[in-house]
Structure formats: structure tokens, C-alpha cells
């Protein structure tokens, strides 16, 4: 009997592409596809069979991946959750793992890694990639390294973005330097702007200098 998989993703093209890929894998099949966490829970409540694995998008309308993972852990503890996201922010990764996810994959990963993640979750019960391990270790070590909370409650990756952004580099060049996608850099920018209560890059640089976060 193949391993059954449920997909919860509000992007229809992504969900369809994942379904096609999974159905090409031997020993795996797609049981259901949901548009968000609420739709997933509704379908599970009516299903005759529960999936072995849920591929869970983190950012979804109505009910996001964080809340959905918590509900799945409480209502269906036997289901294994693999988080899928475009977002590599530490706080999102740590929160998903704390909420019960057995692994966290970026949507830009290769099909071979995706297949390996499914295999290891079924065999070992979890999948910790090198990327995930690095993020978790960095998060665990952050308080000891810093010794105090950073101004504006920035985490280490947001501070790294801030320091690099206080330069003449374009956001695309910053993305290359941080080894992330331009979309992820856009996310860092929005979060840092919000935390620092600024509206422009110039305002961010001035606030950073004022608080001694960067030196020019």
C-alpha cells in the first residue's frame, strides 16, 4: 500500500506540480489536496482514510501553517507534517518545528531532496536537512553569542540583512550575498522596516547608525 500524502497549499499551480511529482514516485500517492489549513481539516474530518504525511505550506489564507500544524498535532498525532515554504526566516522554521513539523523544506529544493525528505520522514520520523540543522543551531546559540537582546528585537538573519543593506548593494545583490531568493530579501526588508518603524532604506540606515548597529 503506497504512502498517502495530503497537500495543503493555496497556490494551485504549486499544489498541482507537487501532486504530479509525487505520483511519479514509486510507493507514494496523493490522497487529497486542500487550499488552506481550514480546508485541510474539513476534508480530514470527512475522510475515510488519513494521510501518512501532510505537506503543509506555511503562508496560507484563513488558517496558516503554524495554526494548522498545531491542530494536526492535537487531532491527528499520527500524521507526519512536512512544512514547505519560500521563507527561510529562523523564527518561522523554529515555530513550525515547535508546532509539530517533522521537517522544513524550501520550495526551491531539488526533486531529489524532496524525495529524500519523504523517505526519511517515513523511515526515521523526521527530516533535518543541512539547511534546517544550521538554522536551528544558529537559533539555539544566538542568546549565548549575543549576550543580550538586539535592539528592535531583530534576529540574527534580520541583523545580517540590515548590515548588508547599509551599503550600495541592490536588493538582488543582497539576496546573492545572503544565498537566498530576492523574494526572501523582500520579506526581511518588510520585517526590519516594521520592527524599526521606518518607511525607507535611508530611514533604516539612520536608525541603525543611531543605535550603533552599523558603522559607516
Automatic annotation (TrEMBL):
One GO BP: phosphorelay signal transduction system
Domain of life: Bacteria
Coiled coil: none
SUPFAM superfamilies associated with the record: C-terminal effector domain of the bipartite response regulators, CheY-like
Modified residues (4-aspartylphosphate): 57
Record PROSITE patterns: HTH_LUXR_2 (PS50043), RESPONSE_REGULATORY (PS50110)
Gene Ontology MF terms: DNA binding
Domain Response regulatory: 4-122
Keyword terms: DNA-binding, Phosphoprotein
Record flagged with keyword Lipid biosynthesis: no
Listed Gene3D superfamilies: 3.40.50.2300
Domain HTH luxR-type per the UniProt entry, residue ranges: 147-212
Record's protein name: DNA-binding response regulator
Amino acid at each position: 500500500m503506497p504512502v498517502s500524502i495530503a497537500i495543503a497549499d493555496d497556490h494551485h499551480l504549486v499544489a498541482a506540480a507537487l501532486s504530479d511529482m509525487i505520483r511519479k514516485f514509486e510507493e507514494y500517492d496523493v490522497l487529497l489536496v486542500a487550499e488552506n489549513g481550514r480546508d485541510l481539516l474539513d476534508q480530514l474530518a470527512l475522510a475515510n482514510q488519513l494521510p501518512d504525511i501532510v505537506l503543509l505550506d506555511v503562508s496560507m489564507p484563513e488558517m496558516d501553517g503554524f495554526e494548522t500544524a498545531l491542530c494536526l498535532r492535537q487531532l491527528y498525532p499520527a500524521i507526519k507534517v512536512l512544512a514547505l515554504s519560500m521563507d527561510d526566516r529562523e523564527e518561522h522554521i523554529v515555530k513550525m518545528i515547535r508546532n509539530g513539523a517533522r521537517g522544513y523544506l524550501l520550495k526551491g529544493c531539488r526533486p531529489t531532496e524532496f524525495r529524500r525528505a519523504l523517505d526519511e520522514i517515513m523511515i526515521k520520523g523526521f527530516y533535518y536537512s543541512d539547511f534546517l540543522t544550521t538554522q536551528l543551531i544558529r537559533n539555539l546559540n544566538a542568546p549565548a553569542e549575543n549576550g543580550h537582546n538586539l535592539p528592535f528585537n531583530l534576529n540574527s538573519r534580520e541583523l545580517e540583512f540590515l548590515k548588508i543593506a547599509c551599503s550600495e548593494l541592490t536588493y538582488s545583490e543582497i539576496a546573492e550575498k545572503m544565498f537566498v531568493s530576492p523574494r526572501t530579501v523582500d520579506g526581511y526588508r518588510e520585517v526590519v522596516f516594521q520592527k524599526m518603524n521606518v518607511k525607507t532604506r535611508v530611514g533604516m540606515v539612520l536608525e541603525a547608525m543611531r543605535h550603533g548597529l552599523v558603522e559607516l
